[in-house]
Amino acid sequence: MTYSVTAPHWLSFNNDNYPARGGPETKWVTDITEIGTLEGKLYLCVVLDLFNKLIVGWSMHHRQDRYMVIRAVEMAVWQRQERHHVILHSDRGTQFTSGDYQRFLKQKNLTSSMSAVGHCADNAACEGFFGVMKRERINYRQYRTRNEARADIFDYIERFHNPRMRRRLANQDSKFTSLLNRP
Q1: Alpha carbon distance 62, 119 (integer Å)
Q2: What 3-state DSSP class applies to 99?
Q3: 122: left (phi > 0), else alpha (psi -120 to 50), else beta?
Q4: pTM for the whole structure
Q5: By C-alpha distance, which of 36, 108, 32 is closest to 75?
Q6: pLDDT tens digits for range 56-87
Q7: Maximum CA extent, the chain
């Protein structure tokens, strides 16, 4: 039996009631986008770390359902370096409000956070990633099959986007270190 729940909005950076602060693996956002192929639609769910903009979990399927979303979050959980508490923010889509999804988050010690109805700006980081991915890659391709799209999206996330974000973070770290080491 499935049921639908909602969650409070924990993502606010000014929220003093929750201890998670800036740093990796403290605040994640998740969302779903649609990619067209000649074979039919393919849905991509990502989990994005707000600190470093890395895609820490993702899943693709021809149906957008709660199981696709759970698989994306499961990947993010497997890759965690630390085991401290994480806020996972989403919109109020049925996949994210399902009882199965909410139980999974509790089992993995993740705090569910959801936007108020009509406040889509909280997922701007995910929407921004989807927009850049579509501008840089997907809009220039016509995928014959879902498998062709899956392979290309995998390549984009793991061989282009995430390495680019890691380089950006390394450059910021080196600039900060050079400022600290000034006489």
Answers
A1: 27
A2: helix
A3: alpha
A4: 0.83
A5: 108
A6: 999 999 999 999 999 999 999 998 877 778 99
A7: 65
Give the residue from 77, 46, 62, 82 showing the smallest Cα distance to 162: 46
144 contacts: CB under 8 Å, gap ≥ 6 = 37, 38, 39
pLDDT digits 0-9 by tens, 31-49: 999 999 999 999 999 999 9
Tokens of 170: 């390394």
Place of tokens 């993740």: 110
Q: Is 6 helix (H, G, I), strand (E, B) or coil?
A: coil
Total residues belonging to the chain: 183
**Residue 93 to residue 96: CA distance in whole angstroms:** 5
Q: How would you label 9-39 residue by residue, b for 16+ Cβ within 10 Å and e otherwise?
A: ebbeeeeeebebeeebbbbbbbbbbebebee
- The whole-angstrom separation of Cα 104 and Cα 107 is 5
Residues of the chain with pLDDT under 50: 1-4, 7, 9-10, 13-20
Q: Which residues contact 3 (CB under 8 A, 6 or more apart)?
A: 98, 99
| CA distance to 12, 91, 106, per residue, from 5 (Å) | 20, 12, 13
Residue owning tokens 């890395």: 54
111: phi then psi, degrees, rounded to nearest 5: -95, 120
